[in-house]
UniProtKB/TrEMBL annotation:
Keywords per UniProt: ATP-binding, Helicase, Hydrolase, Nucleotide-binding
Protein name as annotated: RNA helicase
GO biological process, one term: regulation of gene expression
Motif (Q motif): 4-32
Record keyword Membrane present: no
Organism lineage string: Eukaryota, Metazoa, Ecdysozoa, Arthropoda, Hexapoda
Enzyme Commission number, as recorded: 3.6.4.13
GO molecular function: ATP binding; hydrolase activity; nucleic acid binding; RNA helicase activity
GO-annotated cellular components: cytosol
Start and end residues of each DEAD-box RNA helicase Q domain: 4-32
Superkingdom of this protein's organism: Eukaryota
Stored InterPro entries: DEAD/DEAH_box_helicase_dom, DEAD_box_RNA_helicase, Helicase_ATP-bd, Helicase_C-like, P-loop_NTPase, RNA-helicase_DEAD-box_CS, RNA_helicase_DEAD_Q_motif
Species the sequence originates in: Acanthoscelides obtectus
Family, as annotated: Belongs to the DEAD box helicase family.
PROSITE patterns: DEAD_ATP_HELICASE, HELICASE_ATP_BIND_1, HELICASE_CTER, Q_MOTIF
């Protein structure tokens, strides 16, 4: 497979030129396996490790088929995150430039009226997150998806995990039964296995590709995976020291730090900026324009540290990422795979460091069991951690205070109320429950503080 060329896959010469222009000369295993089957009209389910070229595996054949009979909305690509939607659109734009390919990105956080105008102009390809596309289908009739030839679910396991079920159903109701269905993901799950039933595939033959190494280690060999064992209350000081030690060996490599919540992400970003590590944050509470700006600054190496929630864990291809740090271990092993997959892509080397507290040992063991790799313990200079602990802790406390004074929590509450309404819950009742819970937590913390003071 490795010695095959794109020409062997029966791709048009103009597409071959575009691939060469972006430095893609030989197909990866998933591309060599899936592209001929898609060109032959088969539905396809594909799973391969992050960085294996899944996007081009479906983009190239779709663009070739479109060039033979260009019209209206030809293909619909659904993806779970906004950033991934824009990245996919960029790849389609580069390959489809010679045929003046028209692409429309439909994601939340952007002007719906402007998006509606773009959809009414019947672009060739629509790349969307399910929620925003469902909103358009329910609120206007200026466009139709009834004649699409291709439906793509990128990161299919995430899209079918339950979070997007209502939106997916809304979208599927307006799609034609006769279409090609293409489903791709980095992780094979039960949801991915049952895709044929979920979308009611009408064809008798479905091609399924699973990378041979998928059954062994779920991460690439070029990835150096380590963990740092640290006390919970000193984790941020260990994070700073880990970055300092990495910078001692790699002064310019880009770093992505993953956290578990928007609040933690924002505070950590503020803290690291104050202690001398310039960074940008990426999470769901940041307006979309600012998210795109932050990502652009990181991709262009203007800023070399990105602090993010799992909105950045799927599909983002940034070649300069040399280190991924898990500030908080994810609850699910497959999310760990997606996070560390942001580095060591396309044969490059990379490093992943996870900060592990005594409370995280079980999570670490589950991850190691899932990926069939034992992480190596990384020794961090404890003496240096001791020197910076007070400064980091004080800076973090000040960051929390500044966050309290901003409208961050007000925006968070607005988002929560929207979510409750969509779930059919009474937002006033849910807000009262949330306030009651917060008051209980404050009282509990005050009691602990008083007990410590007495002791």
């Amino acid at each position: 497979m490795a010695e095959q060329s794109f020409q062997d896959l029966k791709l048009d010469s103009w597409i071959l030129k575009q691939c060469t222009a972006i430095g893609v000369k030989h197909p990866t295993s998933i591309q060599a396996s899936c592209i001929p089957k898609i060109l032959a009209g088969k539905d396809c389910i594909g799973a391969a490790k992050t960085g294996s070229g899944k996007t081009l595996a479906f983009a190239l054949p779709i663009i070739q088929k479109l060039s033979e009979d260009p019209y209206g909305i030809f293909g619909l690509i659904l993806t779970p995150t906004r950033e991934l939607a824009f990245q996919i659109a960029d790849q389609f734009a580069v390959i489809g430039k010679p045929i003046n390919l028209k692409i429309c990105v439909i994601v939340g956080g952007m002007d719906m009226v402007e998006q509606g105008i773009q959809l009414s102009k019947r672009p060739h390809i629509v790349v969307a997150t399910p929620g925003r596309l469902a909103d358009h289908l329910e609120s206007c009739n200026t466009f139709s998806l009834s004649k699409i030839q291709f439906l793509v679910l990128d990161e299919a396991d995430r899209l079918l995990s339950g979070q997007f079920d209502d939106h997916i159903k809304t979208i599927f109701k307006v799609l034609p039964r006769q279409r090609q269905n293409l489903f791709f993901s980095a992780t094979i799950t039960d949801a991915l296995e049952k895709l044929k039933e979920v979308v009611e595939v009408t064809k008798t033959e479905v091609f399924m590709y699973e990378a041979p190494s998928q059954t062994d280690a779920a991460t690439v060999e070029e990835l150096d995976q380590q963990y740092v064992l640290c006390p919970k209350d000193v984790k941020d000081a260990y994070l700073v020291q880990a970055i300092r030690e990495f910078r001692g060996t790699d002064a310019k490599g880009n770093i992505i730090i993953f956290t578990n919540t928007c609040r933690t992400c924002h505070v950590l970003s503020m803290t690291l900026n104050e202690v001398g590590f310039e960074n940008v944050a990426l999470h769901g509470m940041i307006p979309q324009i600012q998210r795109l700006t932050a990502l652009a600054r990181f991709k262009s190496n203007t800023v070399r540290i990105l602090i993010a929630t799992d909105v950045a864990s799927r599909g983002l291809d940034i070649p300069t990422v040399a280190l991924v740090i898990n500030h908080t271990l994810p609850k699910l092993p497959k999310e760990y795979i997606h996070r560390v997959g942001r580095t060591a892509r396309a044969g490059r080397c990379g490093k992943a460091i996870s900060l592990v507290t005594p409370y995280d040992i079980t999570l670490l063991q589950k991850i190691e069991e899932h990926i069939h790799v034992s992480l190596k313990e990384m020794q961090v200079d404890d003496a240096e951690v001791g020197k910076i602990f007070a400064q980091v802790s004080l800076t973090k406390s000040e960051s929390y205070m500044r966050l309290d004074e901003s409208d961050f929590f007000e925006k968070s509450l607005i988002n929560k109320r929207k979510k409750w309404i969509l779930e059919g819950l009474d937002p006033d009742e849910e807000e009262a429950k949330l306030l009651k819970s917060k008051l209980k937590n404050k009282k509990r913390k005050k009691q602990k503080t008083d007990e410590c003071t007495v002791k």
